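Progress note, sequence design subtask.
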């Protein structure tokens, strides 16, 4: 479990990297693909998003831009999963740039398999790992501008806890890995009051100040969607079949 690592030669390249941004980028990506989006294409740079999507017919694209939790002027939407309805996204490509979540996906692009995880698709993520059995799995919390994120760490703990339990991993395999043990402990402590955790989290409080209460309620719905966004080509994620 890492917080927005740079994939460098020394760090090695994992077989599988799961980017997590519970509030709200990866929750939004899962929801958009569940609602019928053709694909999700992530950009850390807003201008590159505009240039790349310019070549798409307007009826085949939707531009999502968020900075600091708020919608960027000139974009079709911000980064709320509640805006990803079938009417809005069906058959369209979601071109998305957010403050952190899209950056962490870009950072782990070179992993063997890259996917987006959140509370809403925790089970889909765990099932992928149980069935594909990758040797090395990075669970990457997106955080806020490189800092620790309570909600992403709790989600990483939810995934790790399922894996430890369902793979029946001996405790020695996780002991000493403070990040994993810590994330599981955090999840265990908050798993029955995840909305309360969101309200404690600094980014949750930022979103509450932006009147995004309903977003927080949506983002904590464990295993809501059986959809796994998986990278088909650099920066482009589709619904895993
Ligand atoms: C992020 O990428 O930092 C978040 O998704 C921002 C947001 O709440 O939209």
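Output:
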């Amino acid at each position: 479990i890492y917080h927005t690592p740079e994939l460098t030669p020394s760090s090695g390249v994992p077989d599988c990297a799961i980017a997590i941004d519970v509030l709200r980028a990866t929750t939004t990506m899962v929801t958009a693909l569940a609602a019928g989006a053709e694909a999700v294409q992530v950009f850390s740079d807003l201008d590159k998003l505009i240039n790349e999507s310019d070549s798409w017919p307007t009826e085949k694209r939707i531009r999502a831009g968020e900075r600091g939790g708020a919608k960027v002027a000139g974009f079709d939407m911000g980064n709320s999963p509640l805006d990803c309805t079938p009417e809005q996204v069906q058959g369209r490509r979601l071109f998305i740039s957010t403050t952190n979540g899209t950056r962490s996906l870009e950072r782990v692009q070179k992993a063997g398999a890259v996917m987006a995880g959140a509370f809403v698709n925790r089970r889909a993520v765990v099932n992928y790992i149980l069935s594909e059995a990758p040797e090395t799995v990075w669970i990457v919390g997106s955080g806020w501008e490189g800092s620790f994120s309570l909600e992403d760490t709790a989600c990483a703990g939810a995934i790790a806890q399922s894996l430890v339990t369902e793979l029946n991993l001996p405790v020695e395999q996780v002991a000493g890995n403070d990040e994993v043990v810590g994330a599981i402990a955090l999840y265990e402590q908050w798993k029955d009051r995840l909305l309360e955790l969101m309200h404690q989290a600094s980014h949750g409080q930022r979103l509450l100040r932006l009147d995004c209460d309903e977003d927080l309620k949506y983002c904590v719905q464990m295993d809501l969607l059986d959809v796994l966004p998986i990278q088909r080509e650099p920066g482009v994620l589709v619904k895993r079949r």
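The pocket of D-malate is lined by residues 21, 23-25, 66, 69, 79, 98-101, 142, 207 (CB under 6 Å). Work on this subtask will continue into the next period as scheduled.
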